[in-house]
Amino acid sequence: MTIYNLGSINIDHVYRLAALPQAGETIHSQSYGQGLGGKGANQSVAAARAGAQVHHLGAMGTGDDWVLDRLRDAGVDTGGIARLADEATGHAIILVEQGAENSIVLHPGANGALPADRIAAGLRGIGPGDILLMQNETSLQAETAARAKAAGARVIYSAAPFEIEALRAVLPHISILAVNEGEARQTFAAFGEDLPVEGLLITRGADGAEYRDLLSGKTTLQPAFKVEAVDTTGAGDCFAGWFAAGLARGEDVATALRHASAAAALQVTRKGAGDAMPDRAEVLDFLNARNS
Ligand code: ATP
């Protein structure tokens, strides 16, 4: 079964600085790094490395071909990514002050200007058993979710970055809502706990995760694995991508949660987001080592 991912594609530009610049100030950076980011691209890479067949639906500018190479290297089908001549590839300027706060400027660019005809065409093959993954970093969320649901697919939505109105628009069309602890709190405050979805995935960082099956009332808990975390950026995307891949391959919820938790534990021991997603062999080795 296939995962279609309506997802953002960002280039992360990371500058390390002695101090964040004040208004009107020009400063030199101490180092610069560039990486693949965006919650959409991260989840596509995670699900593909988990062994799922993944079609990414999205858009980017006309340059930056390395981004497509990076996605393809991970096993993602990039045929559904439109190239827009008049939009920049989405990007984040990330200023990291040593030992302190970050400041981030996010430019959605092509992520906010997805061509409706290309996305509809990319979704044409979706059907029962397939999954549409989505996050709140692109345009066309509600209409794409409605189309996937009408075709009989399940829709898994990460409500991040959290926006009440964006969630309200997609809520009637989604099957599983994926949130972290803070997003869960905001969701319950706005909509109550009796949500109109079949399942709720809540991740709680080093405190683990839970899946609430709202149809049966059963909750499955998954503790986090104990590891030395060095960079937790993208942990939620790793978990969501792996969980979706587990469901797509027909795993039961407990197995999908366990694999997702192991994958996210490995991911937080590495620097980076999309580039740090582990593959299936690494996750199975990790689990075998923990069992022995
Ligand atoms: P992000 O926004 O950084 O992608 P998130 O807030 O969406 O993260 P979290 O709830 O922080 O997501 O983490 C997702 C999952 O990753 C957790 O449920 C857990 O399985 C794993 N994880 C996160 N932090 C750790 C950690 N320090 N040790 C082990 N596992 C972790």
Verbal overview:
This protein has 292 residues and is an alpha/beta fold. It has one domain: 3-Layer(aba) Sandwich (UDP-N-acetylmuramoyl-L-alanine:D-glutamate ligase). It is 33% helix and 27% strand. The chain is built from 9 helices and 13 strands. The strands form 2 sheets. A 9-stranded mixed sheet has the order 5-4-1-8-9-10-11-12-13, with helices on both faces. Strands 3-2-6-7 form a 4-stranded mixed sheet. β10, α6 and β11 form a beta-alpha-beta unit. α7 packs antiparallel against α8. The longest helix is centred in the last third of the chain and has 16 residues. The radius of gyration is 18 Å and the shape is globular. It starts with a strand and ends with a helix. The model has no long low-confidence stretch (mean pLDDT 96). The chain binds adenosine-5'-triphosphate. Adenosine-5'-triphosphate binds next to α7 and α8. Catalyzes the phosphorylation of ribose at O-5 in a reaction requiring ATP and magnesium. The resulting D-ribose-5-phosphate can then be used either for sythesis of nucleotides, histidine, and tryptophan, or as a component of the pentose phosphate pathway. Pathway: Carbohydrate metabolism; D-ribose degradation; D-ribose 5-phosphate from beta-D-ribopyranose: step 2/2. GO terms for molecular function: ATP binding; metal ion binding; ribokinase activity. Its main location: cytoplasm. Homodimer.
